[in-house]
Design goal:
The complex is a heterotetramer. Chain C has helices at residues 2-5, 8-33, 41-59, 62-86, 91-114, 138-152, 156-174, 176-186, 188-193, 198-225, 236-246, 251-272, 282-301. By secondary structure, chain C is mainly α. Chain C has a single domain (2-300), classed as ABC transporter involved in vitamin B12 uptake, BtuC, CATH 1.10.3470. The structure holds adenosine-5'-triphosphate (2 copies) and magnesium ion (2 copies).
Chain lengths: 520, 365, 317, 342
């Protein structure tokens, strides 16, 4: 048997109350792509953090090139040729792309950074692997797709031979995913090995050589991807059959719930982000906004929610003008919001689950009376929601920050849906969820639809959009450029408009699709 | 099953022992290090620390003295802690304290003649309001233009101090050469504890101590069980998520800093009403600043503030005895105080030592 | 009257009074950029001021005094670094403890070394670099007076402070040290994942800030006064902390903010000269710098965003 | 009075320890400093100097207890009282209330309150106050004449301006400002006396800037009543060439190396007041229940020698000072103590 490049043996890692890795073993051969699959909280990230020197395991050993190694810090992992792109990016937001990439091993003389050389080096590797970015852009101005490129470039710049990608596709459009896969294949051709964590089974099949499946902290199965299919993987993962495409009744549109009329919104940099958008959502309807991130969806949602002041136009909820309402009034009027960034807007990581569960409802009965909490009701509600939404947590009293990404998302969903809203705005509601959880969330959204709620879905996932939406609005550069009815369009059709195609142009504009830069 | 239960009980006991033990061990380490310093400096460490203990807790009177000194620190500690919980660093509690004191000194004279309970109630409320008012402009500036509260509250401290300095030498000055306000009439002062509770030994400790404890519990309750406290903490941790949940970040900021200011103002009120009976330029020994350390030592937990303030109060009241009986220079006492604060704050060190000994115990068992 | 207020000396005085604030504020900037709050600048200045005077007395050389001031400040900072980085103590508590420690240590050592509390004996001081004194009449004489007062009348550390502000600003944005420092304060885990040692980076920043605090102390004791007095820093460390924020956590900004404050203080003194014309109580003059700072802050400067990770102990994993 | 009382151990010990060479006393005397503490080169230090004098000359045992904060005043007094001290000096006007409270509680102990005016002093309590403005008036005479006399010293300029640097703007400092101003105007009606305030008593760097600004404005003689901060003003005078008039103690003696600018000092003989009080107790002549003012007449305040300026100060000045002193003693002049008198 060929010697493996990296081998993890019997890794065990314990967090207070959680056995995150239970004697996990994993091998990675040279030039191999291994997919690591598993439910939310299965311990994938933890295992990779151990390999990268961010966590130290209670027991187990790590071999690189057949040698026993003791990886105590990321520096040692880097020295061993291991690079990692984290589930939550490790980028310093106020710094530039170039600074983030070279940080730690800057080209310099006497401690003075040679910025031209740094820029050259960044451009060189970005060209070599086809990962184009503007080296002088600040991270916080970049859409996530580009931020991820920066993360990959960081690893490559450090001469990684083994690349760990923790849920790299969760935030990408199909187009971006295709590009990423091309990059990954070219990396493998260059001799790199890749560990690829994802929840998307078709991706696993299309990119990985081998699949390792984890559940509850342990490896429960391993297979060559050629020998399985998505249903088989799903079964291995959640231990039962999974329905990928939920069935839904035909739309029966009732009264108009949400009406957006010629809305114009500016972003932080005062550039027009939403440029005269109009649409309606009616009772029992799912309207999806499809678009590459950074095309104004965030600003659109924030201005509907009352988090951002629109320049002009109107927003009406059941005919009532809420254009200038603040978030509290919007919520009170019956709008729920699953934000796209759960760490920033979705939850308070330093709050425990009971507290996170009442955010936004914390002033309302039965949770609070006269400004005083009814702890009993809160605890009961939390316990019920944890149960209903299958949040994997040792208790309701742990801090939000200790949950795995997927479980955090479930908390947000449980809270927002639990409010029983008139209108649900769900932005990337299944980002980072495992297939089982996605199935559950989708069916919950359709339950809401059946109850006659209006749903505005913002998603990059065309599969999600196709399976849930009654109407699809494609947003590009702040405008709705195309509207499709359910089942009317193929993924390719939608992708075409998402990336700047128009009815008058026949081909997809290649440069536009390379990632989105707004106003630059 | 039973074994599991027992183990859990054992774990709980270990955690409990750790929570009580850590501060205790920290203090012990601090005493050990300080003893070395005292000894090197040529004094008797045993005499020094027994004097410190005696001065702090040696008699009912001394305990009262410790309580007296803990009182303003509880208020300022609560003030700073409340601010921190809302993500605000109220470094200017000292200024709010001065303004609270000013309000009490003024009202105490104006209200003379009213029945004492009414008088006292009005003064407490008004002093808190004035403290809040002194925090209001920094709060507003923070909420509206983002001016950093560390700068603004500190600047307002200096402004408040000079304002008081002028008032006590000018418009509000009592007869005579001394820059101070008129002595408050009896009905405008806080009774001493021994005047209210017969069992309490004769000391200077006053009702401010009880008010502070009650407020600590109230603040703890507010933070834990009310929407007011919930919103403050939410904004303190994550303003974006708060905003998304319909919490007004600016309104919450203003409210939190004003509550903080009110608590600090009460420190001034109770010092004037309970200790000095009047206002003068130097009536606070930096209580607003020490309150920062008190708050953080208590990890911003209002109940913890009570204990942290008592620790500081004890160090303060024990130092006089230490100076007199063990001849330790007053300056050395600062060093000892600093050491104790250090070690109590750096619980990691004590934890490490506890861990070591526990490991040793289990291994030998 | 305006002629008497707007004099070359007003500006010279502003620069002098800004210097200790600026040095400490730049120290605060470097410290906070690395993610550590330094509320102990006051104590570091105090210890620096004291060590400087003692060393200047022992060696009869003010420069050796400066050296010791810097070392002493750095040593105090090392304690702060150990407590807040290694032991992960709360940074503000540690800073408060250092301030108390500094007060006790300087007071106690003064009694040990000098046999009395209060003030030390005067020592060799650093004198102005250029000893020419302005003379000459007429327009050019006047110009020379202005130029001399503002640019050439100062003691060495005053110039050092300006150089440090410039060099610091440059280093923060042009050197590996600066880049890593900025990363540490914003996102230490990101720095850690690319192999930058959070501990080492933060230690060095805290120690440098202490050294600058010590230098600020030396400016007070070895240049401005020529002796040490208990608590002679008189809250300057706290004003410096504010100046660092005012200067938006940059060395240049810190200097600028300190200069603004120094100017307001110098102006206040000049205005006091005319108390027979401006008949307000002296306390209102003394308030001026603080009021002015709030007004400028409210009206001009606006939102200041601290380094994201400041004040939070870094825990691996 | 107290020395007839049977003494406790503390005193017994003291008696055995003392070497029998000087007049012996079994009295023990102590003081409580204000928060300024020892080393303030002002009333705390001077009180202690008075105690030391009593130790040397009367053989009493002495002790100083420093207060780190205001809350220490009362327990410090209690501690000394309980430790058996016979005489306790409480230093500074901020301790007035406390002394008023404590004196009746310990009728056997003599309390001396430095700078304290008690409305109803107990029979074992004496307020010891000083008419600083009288001495400051003499300093004003010196400064007012000196600033005109450009021949006297090359640091004296043409401008008819002198300066005053105060610590905090409070009545006890105001006395110095007012006395100094009145004295200067009495001999030089056109003189401009500029008074600046530091805002506290410890910030030497600030006090230096104030003095520099005075000198820049044309002042050539500066009097500072700013506690320790005033030392900074001395430095300013040395740097920019101006003359200085000290405060409280003879600062020629207490501030090393200040001789080249130290024209004289406004001294406040707190040491004498303390010593005299202890002496009265030792001799059994102490009479309490009083507030005693020490002025020029009682030799409780005065001008320090000119020291290095002995040969520089012209006779015109010394004569004017003598004349002013005589006028004050005779009552021909009453020096005001507050700004109303200006
Ligand atoms: N720092 C921590 N403290 C406590 N528990 C933790 C911590 N990090 C992770 N866990 C727990 O360890 C388990 C494994 O988490 P991990 O992040 O590895 O899951 P994952 O497989 O990556 O899940 P996801 O697909 O949702 O990202 C979870 O139960 C999580 O709650
Ligand atoms: N520093 C401390 N010293 C002693 N006891 C403390 C301390 N901190 C907390 N306690 C104890 O803990 C209890 C209150 O703590 P609490 O349960 O409110 O902690 P918490 O959950 O962190 O509070 P919060 O919800 O306000 O953050 C009190 O009963 C008190 O006895
Ligand atoms: Mg994960
Ligand atoms: Mg003259």
């Amino acid at each position: 048997m060929q010697q493996s490049l990296v081998e993890l043996r019997e890794i065990t890692k314990v967090f207070p109350g959680v056995l995150a890795n239970d004697r996990v073993s994993l091998t990675l051969g040279a030039g191999e792509i291994v997919a690591l699959l598993g439910e939310n909280g299965a311990g994938k990230t933890t295992l990779m953090n151990v390999l990268y020197g961010l966590l130290s395991a209670e027991s187990g050993e790590i071999l690189v090139d057949g040698e026993h190694v003791d990886i105590k810090s990321p520096q040692q992992a880097i020295d061993l040729g291991i690079g990692m792109v984290h589930q939550h990016f490790m980028l310093v937001e106020p710094l530039t792309v170039m600074e983030n990439i070279v940080m730690g091993i800057e080209p310099s003389k006497f401690g003075v950074i040679n910025y031209p050389a740094a820029r050259r080096a960044v451009l060189e590797i970005s060209q070599k692997y086809g990962l184009e970015v503007d080296p002088d852009a600040k991270i916080h101005d970049l859409p996530v797709g580009l931020q991820q490129r920066v993360e990959i470039l960081k690893a490559l710049y450090r001469g990684a031979r083994t690349l760990i990608l923790d849920e790299p596709t969760a935030v990408l459009t199909p187009q971006e995913v295709r590009e990423l896969f091309a990059v990954v294949r070219s990396l493998v051709n260059e001799g790199l090995s890749v560990v690829f964590i994802t929840h998307k089974l078709d991706e696993v099949l299309s990119i990985a050589d081998r699949v390792v499946v984890m559940r509850d902290g342990a490896v429960v199965g391993e297979t060559r991807s050629a020998d399985t299919d998505t249903a088989g993987l799903a079964r291995m993962m959640v231990g039962r059959d999974v329905v990928f495409r939920v069935e839904k009744d035909p739309v029966s549109c009732g009264d108009t719930v949400l009406e957006v009329d010629e809305l114009r919104v500016r972003d932080e940099r005062k550039l027009t982000a939403v440029d005269g958008v109009s649409f309606t959502v009616c009772e029992g309807e799912v309207v999806a906004i499809a678009g590459v991130s950074g095309n104004g969806q965030t600003e659109l949602v924030e201005s509907i929610m009352g988090l951002r002041r629109p320049e002009s136009g109107h927003v009406r909820l059941r005919g009532k003008d809420i254009t200038h309402a603040r978030a509290r009034q919007t919520i009170a009027a019956g709008v729920s919001h699953v934000p796209e960034d759960r760490h920033r807007r979705g939850m308070v990581l330093e709050f425990d689950l009971t507290e996170n569960m009442i955010l936004g409802d914390h002033r309302r009965r039965p949770f609070a009376k006269w400004g005083v909490f009814d702890q009993k009701v809160i605890n009961e509600t939390t316990a019920k929601r944890i149960e209903d939404y299958d949040v994997r947590t040792p208790s309701a009293r742990v801090l939000g920050s200790t949950l795995s990404g997927g479980n955090q998302q479930k908390v947000v969903l449980a809270r927002e849906l639990g409010r029983d809203p008139e209108l649900l705005i769900a932005a990337q509601p299944t980002r980072g969820l495992d297939v089982g959880a996605i199935e559950f969330v989708h069916s919950r959204i359709l339950d809401e639809r059946r109850e006659g709620k209006g749903i505005l879905l913002v998603s990059l996932e065309l599969e999600e959009v196709q399976s849930l939406a009654d109407r699809i609005l494609v947003m590009y550069k702040g405008r709705i450029v195309k509207e499709f009815a359910a089942g009317e369009a193929s993924d390719e059709d939608i992708g075409f408009y998402m990336t700047g195609g128009s009815d008058s142009s026949a081909t997809v504009d290649e440069t536009e699709s390379k990632g989105v830069t707004r106003g630059r | 099953m039973a074994g599991k239960e027992a183990k859990r009980m054992g774990d709980r006991l270990a955690v409990a022992a750790e929570n009580v033990g850590i501060p205790f061990i920290s203090v012990l380490i601090a005493i050990a290090i300080a003893s070395v310093i005292i000894w090197i400096a040529g004094f008797d460490p045993v005499a020094a620390f027994s004097a410190l203990w005696k001065g702090a807790f040696g008699s009912g009177r001394q305990i009262g003295e410790t309580m007296l000194r803990a009182t303003p620190l509880m208020f300022t500690g609560l003030a700073v802690a409340y601010g921190f919980r809302a993500g605000l660093f109220n470094i200017g509690a000292e200024g709010q304290l001065f303004m609270g004191g000013l309000a009490a000194a003024y009202l105490g004279i104006v209200l003379a003649g009213l029945p004492a309970p009414l008088n006292i109630a009005i003064m407490l409320v008004a002093g808190a309001a004035v403290g809040a008012a002194w925090a209001f402009i920094p709060a507003l500036l923070k909420a509206k233009v983002g001016a950093h509260e560390v700068i603004t509250t500190m600047m307002f401290t200096y402004i408040g101090r000079y304002l008081v300095s002028w008032l006590v030498t000018g418009p509000l000055k009592a007869e005579g050469q001394i820059p101070q306000t008129e002595k408050l009439p009896l009905e405008s002062t806080l009774p001493r504890l021994h005047e209210v509770f017969a069992f309490f030994p004769d000391s200077r400790a006053h009702m401010g101590f009880i008010i502070a404890i009650v407020l600590a519990v109230v603040v703890w309750w507010i933070l834990k069980y009310t929407t007011l406290g919930f919103e403050a903490r939410a904004v303190g941790f994550n303003p974006w998520a708060s905003e998304n949940s319909g919490i007004s970040v600016s309104a919450t900021t203003v409210k939190a800093l004003c509550i903080s200011g009110a608590l600090a103002g009460l420190a001034g009120v109770t010092e004037v009403m309970g200790v000095h009976g009047r206002l003068f330029d130097q009536f606070s020994s930096g209580f607003g600043f020490t309150g920062i350390a008190v708050a953080l030592l208590a990890k911003n937990n209002p109940i913890g503030v009570i204990f942290a303030a008592i620790l500081f109060g004890a160090l303060s009241s024990g130092s006089g005895t230490m100076q007199l009986e063990a001849d330790v220079p007053s300056k050395l006492i600062f060093i000892i105080q600093a050491l104790i604060i250090f070690l109590v704050a750096a619980e990691q060190l004590a934890k490490w030592i506890v861990g070591r000994t526990r490991k040793g115990v289990t291994e030998s068992a | 009257m305006l002629n008497d207020i707007i004099t070359p000396d007003l500006f010279a005085s502003a620069i002098r009074m800004a210097t200790p604030l600026a040095l400490a504020a730049i120290g605060g900037t470097i410290c906070e950029r690395s993610g550590i709050v330094n509320i102990a600048l006051e104590g570091m200045m105090l210890v620096g001021a004291f060590a400087g005077v003692v060393a200047s007395m022992f060696f009869g050389n003010a420069w050796i005094g400066v050296l010791f001031a810097v070392l002493a400040g750095a040593l105090m900072a090392l304690i702060h670094a150990f407590a807040s980085i290694t032991l992960r103590a709360d940074q503000v508590v540690s800073g408060t403890a250092i301030n108390i420690l500094a007060l006790g240590l300087t007071g106690f050592l003064m009694e040990v070394i000098y046999g009395h509390p209060g003030t030390t004996d005067p020592v060799a001081r650093l004198l102005p670099l250029f000893s020419a004194s302005p003379s000459g009449d007429g327009f050019f004489g006047e110009i020379w007076r202005w130029v001399y007062s503002i640019f050439f009348s100062h003691t060495p550390i005053v110039y050092m402070a300006i150089l440090i502000a410039i060099a610091g600003q440059w280093a923060l944005y042009k050197t590996t040290w600066g880049l890593r420092l900025r990363a540490l304060g914003e996102h230490p885990r990101a720095a850690d994942t690319v192999g930058i040692s959070v501990t080492r980076g933060r230690y060095s920043a805290v120690v440098i800030s202490g050294a600058l605090g010590g230098l600020a102390g030396a400016n007070l004791s070895l240049e401005q006064v020529g002796s040490f007095t208990e608590n002679m820093t008189n809250g300057r460390g706290f004003i410096a902390l504010a100046a660092n924020i005012f200067g938006r956590w940059t060395p240049g900004g810190s200097y600028g903010a300190s200069l603004l404050f120094g100017f307001a203080d110098a102006l206040q003194i000049k205005l006091q000269l005319f108390r027979d014309v401006i008949t307000i109580p002296s306390q209102f003059f003394l308030m001026l710098p603080y009021v002015l700072t709030v007004v400028v802050l409210a009206g001009v400067v606006g939102r200041a965003v601290a380094p994201a990770a400041v004040g939070k102990p870094y825990e691996k994993g | 009075s107290s020395e007839d009382e049977p003494e406790d151990e503390v005193t017994d010990e003291a008696t055995t320890e003392e070497v029998v060479d000087e007049p012996m006393s079994d009295i023990v005397a102590a003081m409580v400093t204000d928060t300024g503490g020892l080393g303030d080169k002002s009333f705390n230090d001077l009180s202690y100097a008075g105690l030391e004098m009593a130790e040397d000359e009367l053989g009493v045992e002495i002790k100083a207890l420093e207060s780190n904060e205001i809350a220490d005043y009362e327990p410090n007094i209690d501690q000394l009282a309980n430790a058996g001290y016979d005489v306790i000096f409480t230093v500074g006007f901020l301790m007035t209330d406390t002394t008023d409270l404590k004196a009746p509680q310990y009728p056997e102990i003599v309390f001396g309150g430095i700078d304290q005016f008690s409305a109803e002093p107990a029979s074992n309590q004496a307020g010891l106050l000083f008419r600083e403005h009288e001495a400051a008036y003499l300093a004003g005479v010196v400064a007012g004449l000196a600033t005109l006399d450009t021949d006297m010293d090359d640091r004296i300029n043409e401008d008819n301006i002198i300066g005053f640097v105060g610590g905090m703007d409070i009545p006890p400092v105001e006395k110095f400002e007012v006395g100094f101003t009145l004295g200067a105007k009495s001999v030089n009606p056109d003189v401009q006396v500029i008074s600046l305030y530091v805002g506290d008593f410890g910030d030497q760097a600030k006090a230096k800037e104030l003095a520099l600004s005075l000198i820049d404005q044309g002042a050539d003689v500066i009097h500072a009543a700013a506690g320790l901060a005033g030392v900074g003003s001395i430095t300013a005078c040395q740097e920019r060439g101006a003359l200085f008039i000290g405060v409280d103690a003879d600062q020629y003696l207490t501030v090393d190396g200040s001789g080249d600018v130290m024209l004289t000092s406004v001294v406040k003989r707190v040491d004498q007041a303390v010593f005299q009080t202890v002496k009265a107790v030792v001799e059994g002549t102490f009479v309490g229940g009083t507030n005693t003012e020490f002025g020029l007449a009682e030799d409780g305040v005065g001008l320090a020698p000119y020291h290095d300026f002995e040969d520089v100060v012209p006779a015109a000045i010394t004569e004017a000072v003598d004349a002013a002193r005589a006028d004050i003693l005779s009552g021909a002049i009453t020096v005001g103590a507050s700004r109303d008198a200006l």
